Amino acid sequence: MAAKKLLIVESPAKAGTIKKYLGKDYTVMASMGHIIDLPKSQLGVDPEHDFEPKYITIRGKGTLLNQLKKEAKKADIVYLATDPDREGEAISWHLARALNIDENSKCRVTFNEITKSAVKAAIKEPRAIDMDLVNAQQARRILDRIVGYKISPILWEKVKKGLSAGRVQSVATRLICDREEEILNFNPQEYWTIETEFTDPKSKKTFNAKYYGENNKEVKLNTGEEAKKITADIQKAKFVVDQVKKGVQKRNPQPPFTTSTMQQDASRKYNFQAAKTMQIAQTLYEGINLGGKLGTIGLITYMRTDSLRIADDAQRETIAYLTEEYGKEYVNPKQYKTKKNAQDAHEAIRPTSINIKPIDIKDKLTNDQYRLYKLIWERFAASQMSPAVYDTMQVTIDADGHTFKASGSNINFKGYMTVYVEATDEKDKKDKMLPELEKNQEVKLKSFEEKQHFTQPPARFSDATLIRELEENGIGRPSTYAPTISTIVSRGYVVRNKKQLIPTELGIITTDIMKNNFSDIVDVEFTAEMEEELDAVEEGERQWKGVLNEFYPPFKKNLEEASENIAKIKIKDEESDVVCEKCGRKMVYKLSKFGKFLACPGYPECKNTKAIREGTGVKCPKCDGEILVKKSHKGKIYYGCEHNPKCDFMAWDAPVKDETCPICGGLLLKKEGRSAKIFCYNEGCNYERKIKKGEG
């Protein structure tokens, strides 16, 4: 009789996929993430007694744990197949202890992708629980708990109830606040350029050039007078080609995605917030029912990784596919070098099979799943392809000692760009080749323009640029980027304005307090060093309690000093123009985890609250109401009628004010992003146009 086996994973979706791969001897259950953790109501760690943690069954998970215990008793073998990272290892360790499984026995199973072959291969090679990984998670969890639970009460007492501090979130908030300070203190500097258009007499083609300097030496133009003096000089000058340089330039593909680069590219291309990207990636990893012979299969490898490694089998399959699809000249197999401190246990993010093309399964995916899968598939395919090759040309033109420069390029061989173009790469659309100019030939000045410019302050962070900054500074790890941004927004330290992350008054005050009293906690270098210490625990090079013992004494001293030194700060609520109909006071803006709302300042005598009404000034096409800006439960902005639920008008795109459809007179909507356009709301009308300059 075959042995009965129980396999425990983290999510029901993953359990459903894996169950289809295994025989009737297997029971597959989900732990629903962590089942045991530190208590929420208390610190749960004893710093005075070697940081002994107090673990408890998470509230509401008792019934599930009992079910797991019951099934474990029935089974001859129990496999713990939680996610292949620190968190997953810790969940398996907690389960092993709760289910009386020897952690040194071969009970742990990991797979980087959820495919039939990968799951079956992993079950054949179980291992013991990796206590270095577990201890790295314990150190991180306890460190974060101490920082949060010890600093937060001081912020509650001195600033405002409900505030929180966090080891990574506080540094992220500081980066955003410091950037805002840079912007406020920025002093713009004036400069001028001279842009010209020339005609080649031989080919009659026109091309653009810019003023460079004098006698081939660069000169900066700081005033309009300087620019005007040059344009006065050149109007009677001869324009002679002084130098022609032709060359070839190669542009290499980017490596396959890591968590960070996937979040950045999805933000730039699709305006996905980091949390949304990870949510979609999770569904692609856990399994999609494709029907037919493929059935239910995980479409991508594990999505929390900073490794660039590619499995040999996957690379071989990809080379064969690309050779057949595009030809040998398009294929350039490559293993990319993973950066220092990356967790190389996983691969880069890639499709589980290059042969599952996005277009072939589009009807099995939601629109967002399709877009993200297509992005991952194309980036991975491109990473194994040849560089793009450009013909380039640089020309220097002399006008009585004044130097002008022009450059152009033309793609000769598309290479990897046949499949994928990076979100930041706009050059290919703009560049074009210059006419066939020769040294000493004359060209004709067709037009010129003096242009005034001012240097610009650094841009505010977006999800993409903040993630890049965190990664470049060694702050956080792949699993922390998305939740860190979500936390600082939900806490009210930062607000989103379109893609920009802007600090609130609360964020600035809290960051100042942290900088003045807990300088290490918000210090970029200190936080990065702490990440390296935690990585050393994972590698078995450091004891986890030793890391905590080094951190805690100076931190404890900071706590004592801060409690005495921080003066009480009263943050005045922003007053609105809305009058409370119950008591006549002017209502103030408050913040909850669901966003801003209006509240009476007379609380607790008057407990009146209201949702904030944000009008558009556009009339609803279905009734006489006004279209309002609204937010879904998930925080996504949409547009609905003020008379909802009586009127069911709703749109995801913004209504256009003071303009109606020229064909049917209906409501116009404005779509933003890569496919930006103005279009008619009415289904039967096909009117649309590109957005004019200044409209977007």
Protein architecture, described:
The chain has 696 residues and is α+β, with helices and mostly antiparallel strands. The protein is built from 17 helices and 30 strands. The strands form 9 sheets. Strands 8-9-15-14-11-16 form a 6-stranded antiparallel barrel. It has a 4-stranded antiparallel beta sheet with strand order 19-20-21-22, with no helix packed on it. Strands 23-24-25-26 form a 4-stranded antiparallel beta sheet, with no helix packed on it. Strand 8 and strand 9 form a beta hairpin. Helix 6 packs across helix 14 (481-490). The protein is globular, with a radius of gyration of 30 Å.
Q: How do the strands and helices of this protein lay out in sequence?
A:
Elements: E1 5-9, H1 12-19, E2 26-30, E3 36-37, E4 45-46, E5 52-53, E6 56-57, H2 62-74, E7 77-80, H3 86-98, H4 116-124, H5 131-158, H6 169-185, E8 190-199, E9 206-214, E10 217-218, H7 224-234, E11 239-251, H8 259-270, H9 274-286, E12 288-289, E13 296-297, H10 312-326, H11 367-383, E14 388-399, E15 402-413, H12 427-430, E16 442-454, H13 463-472, H14 481-490, E17 494-497, E18 500-503, H15 505-517, H16 524-538, H17 544-565, E19 575-579, E20 586-592, E21 595-599, E22 609-610, E23 614-619, E24 626-631, E25 637-641, E26 650-651, E27 654-660, E28 667-671, E29 677-680, E30 688-689
Parallel strand pairs: 1-2, 1-7
Antiparallel strand pairs: 3-6, 4-5, 8-9, 8-16, 9-10, 9-15, 11-14, 11-16, 12-13, 14-15, 17-18, 19-20, 20-21, 21-22, 23-24, 24-25, 25-26, 27-28, 28-29, 29-30
Helix pairs in contact: 3-5, 5-16, 5-17, 6-14, 6-15, 8-11, 8-13, 9-11, 9-14
